[in-house]
């Protein structure tokens, strides 16, 4: 059974394994059974179960061992006692002792660095609040007017251009690089899963191949390995399938692969509700109004249409029914999965509950009430004998009360519509919910209530499902470690139960910790010799807990983007957008959402001081790219003109060649005809004809020789022009390739 040891102040007199006093970094936490390490900046660490042994375990952690040298480097010598040396009763002389004291002092800045710090805080505020750059042009003057006695205010200078490059080339770059460092370690912040902004790429309409290249190039530019990619999230199961397959194929080449879980399941539930909402709206706007309110539709008389809607009990009942569905079925699910905490372990059960709840609105309880998971998908919800009658079908009390205002025929029509809506919703959910997904079903065992040896097969299936994560030996280890975990007596109920309370009726309510909080406690358990007790489970479960349960975090990111980059800031460059978003993300996670709470260290000061030179270099690089592009365009235009001229000359030469070939053919025909006449004349001994034929042959030969000479020159000129045109084209291609290479180097 777990103990309940309190933090003992006597522990502060102890030393660590190297003989250093632990009071230089150890202090009691916020509760009587927790402690904190100021060196590692930890939150409350539990010692209620292991007592001093928990502190010893922390001393042996990698982070603590890495931080200890900084304690030695920043320590000072302090005198423990200023009393004169005295002799004790046993003859031992007591003298003042020297000891190393904790001197982790605040960073001290010179005056100019203090000015830079103030400018840093202001830039952080601009990013966090979404202020436009131009609207803060006179902020320096405002501060000088407000604080005339402040030397820092006198030197403060943050006009729009400076704010822009400080964020794009300074703070944004700093926070992005800090994020990359974290990504190379883990996706956890003090043991909890966090969602971070990585990068924005402006592509417009892009194919899957272009998206693949953008993703892989971005990871490569930051030194991140492709096999670190766990999965790709998307809205619908049918969107970006090509991208997922292309990335998966690339990863398979390096012995890895993507975990494929389909699209965002929140969208499935949301679209199921849209199916509910669509029918009444469709009926009203496309059927009811055109038939019953022709004049108003034609005249666009909004008042009459709205008045008719408000006075129509049929429409009011339909909308009241939609409200009932929203409040009693979909709201809880959609609200639950808007959380940032990892919920992948409850996704399957909650989706199952959602679908069953929908079915129970119009089906008999004995047919659907005891079904879960994939068994629900096997139900035929259209069976007539399983349908609830109009008296028992669930439409909400408010909706049912309003039925009293309708005729019997109108009521029957309303119930027909209700059943149609339920069937449409159930059909959509049945088609799209992953209730037969064995992986989602298996990961439910991560909940503390499943801590049992009977689920060892599930942990093995989970280990096999993540491509390239664990070796075959590690998969075997995962079963062994699960069995040990199932029987571990060191796991405290307080690790997963945050508190218990009773409601107004006296029923006990249990509030649980986040699942990553619980597993952080479990996975930090050490063996007697200080090694991690569950190294394989740690590797596996940390990867499972970062699987998104939906796209809510991404949607929140889009909202932040819209706030930081509204329509009036559409001219912001991609670099500025990334700088703003990375800085906003840094303020959120490092400063808990407050710009003044972000610790300003020397790296941040350096990033701001370097931002102008980087900005200037970037401007020069872009100018060079622009000049090269302009030069290339001029050369291309010249090449086009030369090509046109060459083609024109080529056409003229081809025409001349054709004419000469025709003349050559005529001369050859004359020679052939005259030769035939000459042969006949010789045979007939006709001297006059012989003379005439000879003259014709001589004339033809002369003509043929002259034409051949011209034809040879024309052909030679044609070859030269064609070769020149080909060479010019090749040179343009080489220049274009070199320009693209130079641009790539500059941008990188």
Automatic annotation (TrEMBL):
Residues 532-578 form the HAT C-terminal dimerisation domain. Residues 725-748 are annotated as: Disordered. Coiled coil: none annotated. GO terms for molecular function: protein dimerization activity. SUPFAM superfamilies: Ribonuclease H-like. InterPro entries: HATC_C_dom (IPR008906), RNaseH-like_sf (IPR012337). It comes from the Eukaryota. This is HAT C-terminal dimerisation domain-containing protein. The lineage of its organism: Eukaryota, Metazoa, Spiralia, Gnathifera, Rotifera.
């Amino acid at each position: 059974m777990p103990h309940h040891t309190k933090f003992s102040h006597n522990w502060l007199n102890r030393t660590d394994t190297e003989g250093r006093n632990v009071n230089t970094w150890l202090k009691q936490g916020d509760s009587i059974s927790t402690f904190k390490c100021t060196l590692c900046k930890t939150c409350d660490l539990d010692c209620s179960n292991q007592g001093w042994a928990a502190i010893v375990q922390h001393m042996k952690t990698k982070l603590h061992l890495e931080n200890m040298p900084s304690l030695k480097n920043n320590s000072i010598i302090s005198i423990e006692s200023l009393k004169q040396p005295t002799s004790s009763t046993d003859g031992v002389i007591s003298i003042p002792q020297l000891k190393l004291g904790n001197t982790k002092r605040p960073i001290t800045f010179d005056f100019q660095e203090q000015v830079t710090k103030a400018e840093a805080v202001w830039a952080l505020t601009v990013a966090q609040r979404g202020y436009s750059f131009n609207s803060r042009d006179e902020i320096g003057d405002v501060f000088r007017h407000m604080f005339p006695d402040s030397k820092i205010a006198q030197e403060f200078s943050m006009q729009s251009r400076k704010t822009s490059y400080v964020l794009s080339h300074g703070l944004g770059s700093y926070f992005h690089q800090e994020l990359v460092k974290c990504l190379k370690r883990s996706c956890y912040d003090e043991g909890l899963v966090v969602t971070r902004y990585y990068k924005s790429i402006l592509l417009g309409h892009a194919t899957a191949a272009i998206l693949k290249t953008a993703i892989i190039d971005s990871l490569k530019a930051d030194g991140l390995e492709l096999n670190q990619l766990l999965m790709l999230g998307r809205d619908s199961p049918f969107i970006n399938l090509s991208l997922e397959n292309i990335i998966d194929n690339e990863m398979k080449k390096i012995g890895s692969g993507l975990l494929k879980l389909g699209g965002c399941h929140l969208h499935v539930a949301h679209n199921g509700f849209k199916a509910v909402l669509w029918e009444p709206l469709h009926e009203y706007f496309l059927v009811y109004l055109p038939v019953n309110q022709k004049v108003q539709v034609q005249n666009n008389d909004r008042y009459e249409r709205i008045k008719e809607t408000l006075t129509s009990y049929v429409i009011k009942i339909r909308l009241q029914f939609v409200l009932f569905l929203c409040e009693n079925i979909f709201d809880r699910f959609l609200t639950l999965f808007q959380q940032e905490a990892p919920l992948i372990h409850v996704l399957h059960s909650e989706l199952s509950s959602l679908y069953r709840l929908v079915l129970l609105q119009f089906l008999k309880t004995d047919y659907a009430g005891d079904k879960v998971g994939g068994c629900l998908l096997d139900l035929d919800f259209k069976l007539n004998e399983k349908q609830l009658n109009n008296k028992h079908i669930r439409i909400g009390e408010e909706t049912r009360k309003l039925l009293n205002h309708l005729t019997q025929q109108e009521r029957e029509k309303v119930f027909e519509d209700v059943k149609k809506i339920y069937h449409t919703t159930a059909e959509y959910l049945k088609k799209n919910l992953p209730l037969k997904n064995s992986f989602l079903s298996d990961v439910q065992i991560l909940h503390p209530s499943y801590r049992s040896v009977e689920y060892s097969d599930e942990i093995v299936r989970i280990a096999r499902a993540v491509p390239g994560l664990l070796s075959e030996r590690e998969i075997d280890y995962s079963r062994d470690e699960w069995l040990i975990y199932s029987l571990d007596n060191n796991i405290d109920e307080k690790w997963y139960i945050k508190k218990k309370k009773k409601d107004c009726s006296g029923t006990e309510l249990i509030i649980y910790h986040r699942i990553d909080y619980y597993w952080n406690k479990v996975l930090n358990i050490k063996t007697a010799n200080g090694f991690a007790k569950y190294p394989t489970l740690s590797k596996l479960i940390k990867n499972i807990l970062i699987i998104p349960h939906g796209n809510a975090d991404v949607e929140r990111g889009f909202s932040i983007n819209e706030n930081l980059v509204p329509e009036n800031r559409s001219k912001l460059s991609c670099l500025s957008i990334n700088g703003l978003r990375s800085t906003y993300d840094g303020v959120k996670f490092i400063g808990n959402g407050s710009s003044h709470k972000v610790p300003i260290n020397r790296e941040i000061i350096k990033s701001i001081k370097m931002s102008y030179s980087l900005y200037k270099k970037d401007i020069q690089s872009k100018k060079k790219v622009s000049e090269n592009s302009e030069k290339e365009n001029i050369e291309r235009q010249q090449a086009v003109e030369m090509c046109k001229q060459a083609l024109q000359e080529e056409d003229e030469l081809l025409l001349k060649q054709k004419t000469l070939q025709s003349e050559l053919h005529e001369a050859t025909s004359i020679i052939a005809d005259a030769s035939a006449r000459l042969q006949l004349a010789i045979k007939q001994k006709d001297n006059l004809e012989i003379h005439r034929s000879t003259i014709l042959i001589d004339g033809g030969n002369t003509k043929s020789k002259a034409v051949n000479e011209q034809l040879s020159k024309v052909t030679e000129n044609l070859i030269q022009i064609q070769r020149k045109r080909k060479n010019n084209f090749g040179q343009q291609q080489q220049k274009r390739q070199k320009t693209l290479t130079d641009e790539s180097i500059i941008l990188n």
